[in-house]
TrEMBL record:
CDD domains found in the cross-reference section: crotonase-like (cd06558)
A Gene Ontology biological process term: fatty acid beta-oxidation
SUPFAM superfamilies: ClpP/crotonase
Gene3D superfamilies: 2-enoyl-CoA Hydratase, Chain A, domain 1
Identification of the protein by name: Short chain enoyl-CoA hydratase
InterPro entries in alphabetical order: ClpP/crotonase-like_dom_sf, Enoyl-CoA_hydra/iso
UniProt GO MF annotations: catalytic activity
Organism: Caballeronia choica
Length: 233
């Protein structure tokens, strides 16, 4: 069974994280495949919008903790940090818009992945959570993307909070675009993606360039500093 499924429909590419038994946790192979397919889709002139979604009941359970624990060498830890940093800065830098369809919990690096996208639609039962600190883990890679999206004070509150953020809480705070009934998620995301796909390709790519130029450098710099922190652990 493929770790990442790709479908195309009317100029929209759908990338589905396909490790439902592991809540679509980002292991090395899935992370690399997702990065590769994001780039390929963005380079494909027939693709105007990319949608990232999760198979099963979760969007993404974050980094694969089992794999991380098995990576005992410093080189493995640094490689993990570099892979995830690359993924988190990739979506904002692409020429095409990237939407996240949250069908369930988005945890840690999975939540950061969603927030790195240009638009987010959440099923009403979906949640965002960042439990790293509560497990004694410094959220080095999560912080830059979270701060970029919600601001420094809100990022601090989220990371030190004591529970997941519900879909309606996220909507009220304008951290996501839309909340829909679970059974309507895929239909709503597709409809939004098709509306975007009907717009001018050059205008969309120009908008993405300006958006990334506005804060992409600071995001990349913050993620590089996070990778350096892994090297110095």
């Amino acid at each position: 069974m493929p770790l990442l499924m790709k479908e195309a429909d009317e100029r929209v590419a759908y990338l589905t994280l396909n490790r439902p038994d592991r809540r679509n946790a980002l292991n090395k192979e899935l992370c690399e495949q997702l990065c590769s397919q994001l780039v390929k889709c963005a380079e494909d002139e027939s693709v105007k919008v990319i949608v990232i979604r999760g198979a099963g009941t979760a969007f993404c359970g974050g980094a694969d903790v089992t794999e991380m624990r098995a990576s005992s060498s410093q080189a493995d830890i640094v490689a993990y940090a570099e892979r995830n940093a690359h993924l988190l800065k990739l979506a904002p830098s692409l020429r095409v818009p990237v939407l996240a369809a949250l069908n369930g919990p988005a945890v840690g690096a999975g939540a950061a992945l969603a927030l790195a996208c240009d638009g987010i639609v959440m099923a009403e039962h979906a949640t965002l959570s960042f439990p790293e600190i509560h497990h004694g883990i410094a959220p080095l890679l999560v912080w830059p993307s979270l701060e970029r999206h919600v601001g420094r004070l809100a990022a601090f509150e989220i990371l030190t909070g004591d529970g997941p953020i519900t879909a309606y809480q996220a909507l009220e705070r304008r951290w996501v675009n839309r909340v829909v009934k679970s059974e309507d998620l895929q239909t709503e995301v597709r409809a939004w993606a098709l509306k975007i796909a009907a717009l001018s390709s050059s205008a969309l790519s120009g908008m993405k360039r300006i958006a990334f130029a506005s804060d992409g450098c600071s995001l990349e710099g913050s993620l590089l500093k996070a990778v350096d922190a892994y090297k110095n652990q």
